[in-house]
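Write out the 3D structure for:
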Amino acid sequence: MSSTHTQLGLQLQPQLTFTSLLLPSHPLITFYPRLHNRTFKRCVSITASSANEPNDVVEHKPKQKRAYPFHEIEPKWQRYWEKDKTFRTPDEVDMSKPKFYVLDMFPYPSGAGLHVGHPLGYTATDILARLKRMQGYNVLHPMGWDAFGLPAEQYAIETGTHPKITTLKNIDRFRSQLKSLGFSYDWDREISTTEPDYYKWTQWIFLQLLKRGLAYQAEVPVNWCPALGTVLANEEVIDGLSERGGHPVIRKPMKQWMLKITAYADRLREDLDDLDWPESIKEMQRNWIGKSEGAEMEFSVLSSDGQERDIKITIYTTRPDTIFGATYLVIAPEHPLLSSLVSTTQRESVEEYIDVASRKSDLERTELQKEKTGVFSGCYAKNPVNGEAIPIWVADYVLGSYGTGAIMAVPAHDTRDFEFASKYDIPIRWVVMPHDKKLSGSGKAYSGEGNVINSSNTKLGLDINSLSSKDAAFKVIEWAERTGNGKKKVNYKLRDWLFARQRYWGEPIPVVFSDDSDEGVPILETELPLTLPELDDFSPTGTGEPPLAKAVSWVTTKDPLSGKPARRETSTMPQWAGSCWYYLRFMDPKNSNELVAKTKETYWSPVDVYVGGAEHAVLHLLYARFWHKVLYDIGVVSTKEPFKCVINQGIILGEVQYIAYKDSDGNFISADSDTSAELQQEIIPDEKVIKSGDSFVLKDNPEISVLARSHKMSKSRGNVVNPDDVVSEYGADSLRLYEMFMGPLRDSKQWNTSGIEGVHRFLGRAWRLVVGSPLSDGTLKEGTVVTDEDPTPEQLRSLHKCIAKVTEEIEATRFNTGISAMMEFINVAYKWKKHPRVIIEAFVLMLAPYAPHMAEELWFRLGHSKSLAYEPFPKVDPAYLEESTILLPVQINGKTRGTIQVEKTCSEEDAFQLASKDEKLSKYLDGVSIKKRIFVPGKILNVILDRQNIKAAVR
């Protein structure tokens, strides 16, 4: 062991050997897939190819020789970083320095651990963090766990294992995997949403919401499973049945805690304009908030003899200009007035319809492609603008949670209404004439604007004929407000946030109820955290009460205000709660007196770069923004928005799978053939498939095309690649480099294990460039092969060109092209006879954000005793980016005959000598008499020959 190794306190492990990496063969599976772009009718069985029968051991080529000793290097430097706390951000930092807060979206620590898709975003943030440290920034790069959640509770119910035990085990697994990949997290700031010291402040935020009227209770429909006796989350309901047991699930109203996010709808929408987020994500949030301007109109319900009753149905419409075209009303099955509207003859039909609708999710009900269904209520309402009696229908494509739960249906000018009216033979009346007259005779609904027709009632003083849609809408609203039939209204698709789960494994809600009252009373802030009681039985109660109701001694308490007997709230917070504000706690994770110290929050806010999957584009980001704005209003945070820049990394898809089709006789059928026969699918090994044009065909039968497809990695598909296996085979640096080299960060990419070999070879070349080739016995000599000579101008130009490219590409998150620049540098450097230290050290520093283990080892071998984590990142010298050579045109007697490559400072004589040696130009200049030379530096060389030589030269 060298003296420098001793100084660093590092020990080299004995040489490791790898066992063969065995991949399971395809099992024999039978299932009924929906085939991509196919119209076959079939019951299909998938069988493994005969070359790969079930239960066979898959043979792999012998393990390749390691390109460099990563198996020794990586554990060594991971131990060093952990012991030295290399990446710890001090509690008190020099606030005169610039800061960089880069954050990964909070992971849920599942039992499956990481697959190779997870490190994509983590590697990107780590590269940014390492670069910024080397550029002199104070960097905050923490990691923690969004650890409350349904999977751990379901596992607890099935096995009797306390969810805390499962969660801690999963966290240990995730942490170990992340450390094995060399991510430079500050592990001293690690937090988990399940720790009382953390959720104390989640509960504190809830109390602030309650104080400001932003938390309240309301009756809302939930997924109730009578057979299981519990409320189910949306993800536990599949096609109207419980995921566990396949029992029927209905929508049932239940008193729940709600957060009034709608109070912040305008701010949440308007403040998106100032954010450096993908425009697609901002548009998704705008659509989710769904601001629309229109009118609320009132329709009087009519009795059986046509008289107005004292019941009015209020509808919301964004197109008041079409009100004369309303030929029926639709109310939601859960509308509160429905029971008082239904006629005796229709009651049974309506109740049956309500029961069926209660088994559908909101998404199923509003799906545009589904066939519209409904039932007549047996009752009519009066259209306020023309006095017509129009039927009231019940249909599930109208939701009770949106608008008023009722709509006026204008089938001529709304596609859904048109389909419904056509099905049930309801009149369709055109009231808007399109500017393009051809559209009015298309036989379809026209939902655009135009000029209003058939819309006048002089008795009521409303005539909007010939007006534009916009002017007509304004006039209808004006009339409605004047006559008391309606008013202008701004509406939102955004609904208040359902903030309660009838589950055990979540944050307790810090509220009690007096025994003689249903009014919630907040507990004192000094009593926080309200911790979860220990339970042995986490199963549902069967009564609809949450599992916490079983903790009788915990539930029984006193009203903090009156001292009277009271009971605790037994619902818990949803999983979203803890992830709404964790980025603030990372700034000050050990503070027991306040959520975050003001000085630290002011310095670190906002998060500079926030990286995660697009699946969190709406809910998580919207909820976090909502809480942040509330905290801003009460003075806890200093910024209006939590995340300055959001980046959504793409998805890494599993490796390509090739599917061939066979008919009942066992003959292959081309994948692009059109047949209605029942077909079998067969998985074909890669080596039996070749590419032909834009498709893939069987190697032995090119007439047969096969289907090539890849899917998002998931345990259920069996296409997960474990990063532990890749690290064992190629090293963590190779995995990091490959994930960045696969393509642009934001694009979806397809995993190909063989593709990692290319970047592994590149790292091997980088290693040998610095260290030299192994000795004859396979060992490596100490130190490096670099020299202390001054670099040549050409070497400096190659280096600084690489520095400029790598710096620019990392900061623009174009990591793949940054790697390409380093590969180009290595190719050039291998042509040099000598490798000056100043050049090689700069290259090692450039490599460090991408491949930190190798870079640390090379830095150490170059004679440095400290980690390079805080060494200055190389800066480009613009002088070396200028091209030192130019193409100089050469003329013979005024006619251009070729060009030569010359230095910019090239003299006339040097230019002439180069031209004389040029293969193309030399035939004009050899053995001839030259009259004169005209040389303009950097522009042109013109050689004038004696006349007698011209013909000879040309010849």
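Confidence is low (pLDDT under 50) at residues 1-63.
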